[in-house]
Structures are given as C-alpha cells and as structure tokens.
Amino acid sequence: MTRYITGILILLLVSVATSQAQRKEPEIKACERQIEKLKKAPDDVTFARELYNTGIYCLDRGMYDEAALLASLAAAFNAQDIDSISKLLLPALIQSFSFKEEDMKYSDDVAKSSENAYSRLAKAYTLTAEGMKHNACLRGYAEQIFKSSFSQYRLAANDYMYAVAHTLLGDYYYEEKRYADAIKSFKKAVSLGERPFLEYELEEAKNRWIMALIQQGKYKEAEKVLDGIRKTDTPTRTITGLKDAMCSRACIAIMKKDYATAQSLCKEADERYRKSMNSMNFYRLNVLRNFFDSFTLVARCYERQNEIGKSLQTYQKMKACLIHTLGLYIPYYIDLDRTNLLSLFQPWYDEMQTFAYRYINHEGMPKFMYSNAQLMKQFFLVSPAIYNEKMVAMQGDKYLRQLSQRQSEIMLTEDAMNVHLKGDYLPNILNSMRSMALSREAVAYVLGSVQEPYRCITEWESILKTVTSKEEVMVEFILLHRPDNGARQYAALVFTNADKSPHFVPLCDEEPLRAALNDTDDDQQNDFIVKNIWNPIQAHFGGRIVISLFPTGLLSIIPFTGIVSDNNLYLCNEYGLKFQLCATDRLTKKYNLYPENKSVVLFGAADYGLSPSKPENPVRGQGFHYLPSSKKEIASISTVLKEKGCLVEVFSGRQATESAFRRLSDRKESPFVLHISTHGFYLPYDSGIKDKGLNQEGKSGYYNPLLRTGLALSGASKAWKDSASLNLPNDGLLTAYEIFGMSLLNTDLVVLSACNTGLGEIRDGEGVYGLQRAFRSAGARNMIMTLAEVSDKETAEFMTLFYQNWKFKTSKRVAFVKAQGEMMKRHHKEPEKWAYFVLIE
C-alpha cells in the first residue's frame, strides 16, 4: 500500500481538564458508523455500494490511496465478468495493488439491483482514478481509468456523473499542463452538465474551462465564456466560484493592459480567499488548489506582458495569504496532511523558484527565492510544537496518551505492515480509517484548547538579523528546475551581515551529483564536490571562516567536514562548519530545556541474538554482530554524565528493547538526552520484492521509507537474518516509522551512535525521509548522526570525547568540534573515523 499513516504527530502536546468520557469524538463515531454499514451489508450489491461510500469517506479526508483501493474493489463487485475487470482496471493497477483473481467476484444479485449496474461500475472507476491521480506512482494511469468510465456512463444514460468525470479528467489534464486536452474535457463537461448540474457545479466547470483557455492564450474565447458567469454573489455560489472568476477577469484585464482593474479584482479575490481558508478544514484542499491555480494564472499573465515586478508581487501576495491562513495550523498537521499539502504546494513552489531563476537579476528576486525555501521548510520539515512552552511542559495529557495507545494497537501490527505483500487490503484500510479518525480527534482536542497560533516567518531580512558575527556566512542550498531545459539543479543563496541581498550561486545538476556520490573512487568524488559545490560558494565568503550550512536533498549526505580543499586541507581545518536544518530556527527562540535534574537515557550493548563471535573491529551497520565497544561506550558516558549531576538510566543487553524505547514516549517528560549506541540501517526500495522480510540482500520491498530506516535493538538479528516478517512491536528493529509517532518534546539532544543514521530516502520538499525526519517530528531539538558506516571502536571513542567536552549550558557545537578535532589528530589520514559524524542543530 503506497500511502502510509504514521501516527498522531501532535499527540502528547497539551493538557486540558476534559476527560475521555466527556469527549463526543464525532470523527471517530463517523468512522465507525461507515465501517459498520460495510460490515452489515446483506448482499454483494449493498456491499459494493458501501465500498464506494467508504471510498468517498476516505477521499474527503485525504486518504487517496485507500479511496482508490476501495473503489477498485467496488468496481470488481460491480463488474459483469472477469474479462471486463481485467481490461478496465488495467494490469498496472492490478499489479500495484496486488489484486488476486479470486478477489474479482461477481454476484448475480448485481444485475437484479434497482440501480443501473453500468452507473455503479462507472462511478467506481471514476473514484479509482480520482484517488490514483494523487499518487505519483499511479498517476499516469488515471487518464485511462477515467476514459474507461465514459462508456459505462453512456450505457447508463447518466449525464450528471458523465459530466463530473469529464470535469475531473479536465483537472488531471490541467495539472499535467495539457491545456488543449483540458479545454476539450471542460467544454464537454459544461455541455453535458447544462441540465443536470446545479448552478455552482456548472460555474466551477466553466471557471476551469476559462483558466485552461487563458493558459493556451485564447483570451477572446475565455472572455466569451466568462461573460456567462455572474459577477455578484448568489445564495448558491460556492466559496471558490466567484473568486476564481475574479482572477480570470483580472487575467483578461492584464492582457488588455488594464492593470488598475486587474489589481482591484485580485485584491478582492485575495480577501475572499483568506476568509475561505481561515474557515476551512485544512485537510480538505480543493479551495487551496483553486487558490494556487487562479493566482498563478494571474502571475503568468503579468509575465506575458513583461510586467515582472507585478508578477513577483502576485506570487508574494499568494505566499502571504498562505502564511496568514494555513500557516497558523502548522503545529497541528499530521503527516498525511503534510503529504497532501505538499502534493499541491510542490508544483507551485517549483514554478515560483523557476520564475525567480529566470529573472534572478530583477530587484528582489534572490530574497524572494530565499523566502520560498524557508516557507517550504517551515511547512514540511520543522516541528513547531517544540517552540511552544505550553505544549512542551504539558506533554503528558492522559486523554491524548489514550488516543496514542489506541492508534498503536491498530497500526503497529504485522498485518498492517505486510498488507502490500498479502493482498488482503480491506481489513487494513478499515484500520487506517480508524487510525486517521483518532488523529483527527487529537487535532480537534488540541485546537479546542490551544489559543496560541504559530508564527511562520520566512523573510530574508528577518533571518539576516540573526547573523550577528562579521565572520559568519550563511549558505542556504536549494533544488530547483533550470529555466532553459527543466533539469533539476542545485544552487545556493549565500550572504553575510554586510550584504543587502543573498548572492545566487548556480551549482551542478542533480544527476551528475548523484553519479559522483555513487562513485567508488573517493578522490574523484572529493574533486567533484570541491569543483562543483564548494568552490562556487567559497568565492562569496570574503575571507570569513564561520560557515553555516543548510543542506537539502543529496547535499544532506555529503560529509563536508572531511572534504579536502584545493589547499590540500580538510574543510574543517580551514573553516568552522555548522549544520542546521532550517534558518528560522535561529529566529524563533526554542523553548530552553535545562532542567535542574537532567534526565539521560542510554541504550547500548544490545543482545541482538547472534553468536558473540565478532570481527576484530566490527562496523556498526554490517549485520547485527555484538558491538564490544558499545558496552564500554555506554559505561564511559554514564560515568561522565553522572559526574556532571545527570540522572542516568541505562538500557543494555536484553533490556535494550523496542518496548523500553517506546515507553519513553509515555513519560511525563521525555529524557533531556537520549543516546543510542547500536547498529543502524537504511535499505533502498525494490518494487520487485514481495517477501515479507524487511531485509532482502540489502534491499527491501516495503514502500514506506520510514520502515526501511532504523536502529537495531535486542533480538533484531532474527528478523534481519532470517527474513522474518516485520512485526513492529517485538522484532527488535526500531524503525523510523515507530519513532515518528512518539513524543520527545522534552528531549534536547538525540545521539545516534550508529551507522547511516543520517541517511534515508531523499524526497522533494521533505528532506531526508528517515531517522532524521522521524526524531525531528517527534520533537527532538538537536541530533548527532552519521552519514556512513563507522567502526565500533572509533564511534565509542568519539562519543566519549563529546560528552567529556559538553557543558550543558554551553554550545553543543563547541563540544562536538573539539571531539572531532581530537579524533582528527589521532586519525588524520582516516577521515572515515571522524568526518562522517554530523551535528544537526
């Protein structure tokens, strides 16, 4: 199953007096009502109808893959024979969702139903396609599924749903920038819908048709259709209809160079959108899609008239509207909401960045580009809950812990994880629905008690104020599309406190960098990084030596500390390097965590279950052999920290279990420091693997990247070596999936003393999707991780040095740099023993 539910992101945040008995839990009850209808269906006809209705329930809540699967099952029950289902559902869909032939049941009852069987089948296809178009892996098949429904609608004589399907297909074409095809689909939808559509439905179809016409430059045709749309509010108009029409009228005015009229229309549309989005459920994103499309079209029209400044202003107003509406909800997004929002936001973000690149020399463009990057990170990478003192201090709320426990019981099961290998989807979909309902209940619970909106700050000028040292250089790496050929390219925005604007520095394309990082020749890899990444940004340092790096994408896995410069020196010998996730972390003061009794939890020397025989100096990450230095590391660190007055709790041997780790989330306060000394793992995805075991010769068939990244604890060897099925609570493999749903809001530092813990799947807008993302989302403020395999002995050596140097109320970075410097002196010609450690603040 390609969509995943990661747990309640904001559980354990805030305390109010309301007890579970007092909560009405409307979303949970609505979910159970829908499931009950499905379970009590007396025959195949009713069951097929309730499968479809359950799919609609999921679609309305952003559970697009679940909606597509349910609709596909409904189609199977409504199909008149096996041959038709195999043709209409497509081999790709069947393969992706692993349908078995025995699942494609058909009952004679279907033909006896009062509802037209063709209509039911067509509706199921339409819902399948609508869900699939939200999935990047299956999106390409949505067009054919939509078209498969058309013949069924014609046979059913259902003009209403036939028109709806054409509208949805037109939306698909529009998103794919196939505007000529979109025009045909919307025109057909309007023609079919003239009689059955309600006024607002017809108006929405016309608005989309008009936008496609404007995209194609057919302004006269667009104006003609636009004349048929009311200019004033009516009781039956939707919250989007009038605003979309206003933006379209603004576009026509722009092409006539009537800029005053265009600006007036856009201003009113902007005000109405703000009201709409402030009152909307932020996981229902149709309003947001129309908002992006409408104002982007206005910006493009200004650009066509070479009014670059006005185009820039339009994009800036769009961003301001987004910040002042959805930005308030950032702390309450669960992962599914972020994923769905990103699918809408990413194309708009890419367009803004490409626009800025195209006119990079225009006044204000570098600042605009920088601000966009900060917005992307704040929406999709940060955990704003850690900045709210109330949320942190009151994390032990009883009711929220109960919700979290209920969700864990549903989702952390073997069946839930192995569903994509078993083909038995329905039980897991129902559990996913229950999990999502619990998440929605948690959101409603917190929103009802927290009156402290999150402040989303992205302006370059605000970040500049944090650069107080004359010696510091800020380097924000970004990934964008080149204006000339569309290739993905890395670039940097570099500035100091003496600059009036960031310097835009184009770097290398993504694919050459990927090839270089896969190069087994270390010298060639080093030379590529120096020539194509470091030297271009170094040209803007002006002799300064403190470099703050904010990596993204593939740049997140480069060990810059151990790169050798053209001066034949390690970069860490020439510069003071700092690695940070988001520049706005510097601006928003984190809630300080320096309790009088500092709690420290150490995990290490786990009993993995293999024979204690071991290589001379084992590497953390190469199989789960016992790590002799891990025991010494934990003992040494424990002694050091106890001498500093810390309350130290050690979990080692058979006590270093998954359940012990997860129970940290149930405490009133999570530990101040969490140190894990063990093996780490990251497995690339292989879609051809259908075995239940997580590890298949260094790869995995699990789609979810959070399941393919993790840490080994007691008992892990059996699940790893024997390819046993993944059993999350008890297999000894602590995955990023499990960590994601925890609460570590009182944890100032997580130290992952293991290999590859900084790695993971690289995702647009979401950074490294692995342990780094999981611990950050759980609330941890700072992390020490590794970017490659590191030997057991030197790992223990490095970690002990770090804790010896760290004084809790002083900079962790100072202690980290001292430890790294000492290790470099001892192993100067072996950077793999010290350069792969990274502190992310």
From TrEMBL:
Which terms are listed as keywords in the entry?
A: Signal, TPR repeat
Q: Where are the TPR repeats?
A: 163-196
A Pfam family cross-referenced in the UniProt record is: CHAT
* Residues of the CHAT domain: 533-840
Q: Which PROSITE patterns match?
A: TPR (PS50005)
Q: Which domain of life is it from?
A: Bacteria
Q: Which residues form the signal peptide?
A: 1-21
Among InterPro entries, the record links this protein to:
CHAT_dom, TPR-like_helical_dom_sf, TPR_rpt
**Name of the protein in question:** CHAT domain-containing protein
Organism of provenance = Bacteroides cellulosilyticus
